């Protein structure tokens, strides 16, 4: 539990169990909606697999700008706090994007726009 694995007789570094569980839960939160989105894009919008792949790669583009998000969060404050309000706003906007996707998306353009906004909010939160 201290970050060392001593089963073989020598100390080797390992990750603590709570951190591994956190990574597991985070991957579940990220992968389950993408599975549903792929099904939605395939069955509801009748997109080809190539277009779905373009959609998914387009949605992961905001993750490249995470250092910029870190700068914004550390440079500006809302209500005297730096990180909490930004995390809260990003989570709320991401949730609203999920609802808007269910209600408003009926074309490829709207799917791409809402996917980009949702992914930007999720990247900002993480």
Looking at this protein, list some descriptive labels.
two-stranded antiparallel sheet, 69% helix, globular, single chain, mainly alpha, 5 helices
Beta-strand content estimate: under 5%
Question: Main beta sheet: strand number and arrangement?
Answer: 2 strands, antiparallel
Spans of at least 5 consecutive residues whose pLDDT stays below 50 are none
Structure class: mainly alpha
Looking at how many chains there are and whether they match, the oligomeric state comes to single chain
- SS field, number of helical segments: 5
Radius of gyration: 19 Å
Strand arrangement across the biggest beta sheet: 1-2
If you had to describe this structure to a student in words, what would you say it looks like?
The protein is mainly alpha-helical and 126 residues long. The protein is built from 5 helices and 2 strands, in the order E-E-H-H-H-H-H. A two-stranded antiparallel ribbon has the order 1-2. Helix 4 packs antiparallel against helix 5. The mean pLDDT is 83.
């Amino acid at each position: 539990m201290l970050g060392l694995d001593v089963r073989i007789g020598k100390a080797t570094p390992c990750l603590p169990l709570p951190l591994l569980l956190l990574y597991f839960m985070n991957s579940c939160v990220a992968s389950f909606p993408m599975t549903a989105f792929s099904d939605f894009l395939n069955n509801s919008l009748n997109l080809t697999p190539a277009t779905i792949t373009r959609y998914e790669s387009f949605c992961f583009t905001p993750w490249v700008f995470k250092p910029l998000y870190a700068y914004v969060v550390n440079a500006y404050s809302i209500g005297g706090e730096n990180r909490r309000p930004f995390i809260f706003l990003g989570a709320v906007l991401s949730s609203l994007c999920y609802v808007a996707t269910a209600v408003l998306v009926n074309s490829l353009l709207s799917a791409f726009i809402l996917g980009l906004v949702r992914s930007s909010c999720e990247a900002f939160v993480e």
